[in-house]
Amino acid sequence: MSKRCEFWKDYDSVGGPVSYCELAAFNRPVNPDFLLKIGCTPEKRKECLGTMELNIGAGAVPGAAPLPAGEQVTPVGSFCPPPEIAKTMVGVAEKKVTTKMSSLVPLAILAGAYIALGAIMFTIITNDLAGYIGDGLTRMIGGISFSLGLILVILGGAELFTGNNLIMTGFLEKKVTGKQLLSNWFWVYLFNFVGSLLVVLLFYYSGIWKANAGAIGTRAVAIAASKASLPWVEALFRGILCNWLVCLAVWLANAARDVIGKIVGIMIPIAAFVAAGFEHSIANMYFIPMGLALKNQPVLQSALQAISNIDGLTLGGFFLNNLIPVTIGNIIGGAGFVAATYWGAYLRPMLSKKDFAANGKA
Which ranges of 98-231 does DSSP label H, i.e. alpha helix? Predict the structure, then answer.
């Protein structure tokens, strides 16, 4: 368009740039006289819609035919409907698998670090909270605190393995190859680990774990010991449930059209998974190494005697009992329960009744 009208709006969303007309999106009255007054002719509406479709593949403008006096356009709403989110996720998948390594590596390191920062918040806030408000509320508040990590990933911009399980939508839509999918998962997972360990190092030498008479460090070791001592099958199923919710958080963030909506969409599923005790592979790349780093600290020894499963906190327990089954579970939960299911519901080519009858005869 040579000159955009006052009702044309664009902004950058998680899935990329979005353009829309306020008249269509927010139920503004659009009787013929009003449209004529602002120069919104059928030709202009066609031009607007064409520009939007060229930019983002979809658009929302008032109806091409003049509306009867007093009638209003059906509102699009302040969020993307699920079928549109599914299409958005395919586009996001295409962008992610073509990201250059020079960008992918630092973004993956940042994501691992951001999730670790959320884990630090969780540890500090919950180190003695249960004694004041009980277990349930402590879990909820801890989950809200932990959601900091994914908020930073989504709004700050970073590459997180668990969220990238949604690239499966692009693979199923045949916009992403299997090689691209696995390559992205491998490199992002590896450098998420690097970012997590970087924060372990920084937090260890910060000495903050000594605060509250060592209660924060004791809490960190207790969390790590419980995770490293999980039975393999339990870790697997907790991983499935976790990334089902994490990928739904990413999905809802793509649905929201404003920052507050994105934060709320992220926070509620993340708080749910943390409160329930589900297992997140990238978070555990911080939690368990942090526990291993503090396990033998002399200042914590008297407090650590109360942790019954501390003997399970070993490198073998980290990888064999936790990281491997949890990672497999995360892939099933994210790629299977979210990406594949929504692709099947909204994007999978459907046979018409005519095609179905023809196939039946064949």
Answer: 101-126, 130-133, 135-146, 148-151, 168-172, 178-206, 211-228
pLDDT tens digits along 61-108? 665 444 444 444 434 446 788 888 999 999 999 999 999 999 999 999
pTM above 0.85, yes or no: no
Specify whether the CB–CB gap between 123 and 291 falls below 8 A. no
CA atoms within 13 A on the CB side of 261: 14
Q: Does 342 map to a domain? A: yes
Q: Which residue from 53, 60, 55, 54 is spatially nearest to 78, judged by alpha carbons?
A: 60
Give the Cα separation of 1 and 8 in Å (integer). Answer: 11
Give Cα separations from 9 to 12, 22, 55, 117 (angstroms): 11, 7, 13, 35
Contacts of 269 (CB under 8 A, 6+ apart): 245, 246, 248, 249, 252
Decide which of 47, 62, 77 is a domain's last residue. Answer: 77
Q: Do residues 93 and 202 share a domain?
A: yes
Strand 16-21, strand 8-13: pairing: antiparallel
For the chain, the distance separating the N- and C-terminal CA atoms, rounded to the nearest angstrom, is 50
Same domain membership, residue 130 and residue 28: no
